[in-house]
Amino acid sequence: MKKLLHKNYFWFLLVFSIIMVVYLFTLCPDIYLEDSAEFVTVAATLGIAHPSGYPLYVLLGKLFTFIPFGSIAWRVNLMSAFFGALTGAFLFLIIQKIFRQRGRNKEPEKAKGPLITLLLYYLLPFSSALVFAFTQIFWSQSVVAEVYTLNTFFVVMIVWLLLVWAEKIQEYKKIKKQEKRETETQRMKNRADKILLLIIFLYSLSLTNHEMMLLLAPVFLVFVMWHDWKIIKNYKFIFAAAFLLIVGISLYLYLPIRASQNPAFNWGNPQSWES
């Protein structure tokens, strides 16, 4: 049990499970206020929601409607709870990683002692994630059919991956200064670049859920340039990044394709560039 208390996957699953259980007990059983009826309808019928259309949400919502129990509305509401719980779990990982990075800079981890380590790196991030998950606003959006928990899930997952990527870049720079074998340093750089490409793809997908993610683009870009500005000289990477951006955003093609099939709910009938 002692070893388990120092495993990230244990705390990740614990945070997710606690939040998910509470959300399940408080989950809205049917249609609710705001956009709830619209999102349940477009998910169930593969329709077109109000601008920006939210194609990723609609497609994921359709997958949740295949759950073999509960009403259709309950199943789509469940998707909000699922991504809300994942948001809390990834928030735990973010806070823990920040504490670890700061802790290593100030004092070696072994010098802190097991109780301090458990408190700083596990209990504090654990309690912080739960506090966030059970705030009134976030909780209210996690138990009804809404796009916001999927959006926050993308935010925290991308932030966590950026922290992982930055850590890999720091390790790469450190090894490069030590003038170790070129193949070893290049292998480490390639691994970091793959993580960054994954981040770019996830970011492009997030734009097909909520366009407000555009506001975070400058922040993410500055963070990347701060840690590895030379990445802009890697034309092979730039080409791959542009391709992944296009692939992710191309999910918006769902709108004209599905609109041309006259779905039951077809907001604005977006079959042309104008519409």
Largest sheet: none
What percent of residues are in strands?
under 5%
Helical coverage, percent range:
55-70%
- Shape summary: flat
Q: How many whole angstroms does the radius of gyration measure?
A: 21 Å
Q: Termini separation (Å)?
A: 59 Å
Round the mean pLDDT to the nearest integer and report it: 88
Counted by DSSP, the helix tally is 11
Could you say which structural class the secondary elements and strand pairing correspond to? mainly alpha
The low-confidence parts are none
Number of strands: 0
The secondary-structure element order is HHHHHHHHHHH
Question: What can you tell me about this protein's structure?
Answer:
With 275 residues, this protein is an all-alpha fold. 69% of the residues lie in helices and 0% in strands. The protein has helices at residues 8-26, 36-45, 55-64, 72-106, 114-133, 136-141, 148-177, 182-207, 217-228, 235-249, 254-259. The longest helix has 35 residues, at 72-106. The chain is flat and about 65 Å long. The mean pLDDT is 88.
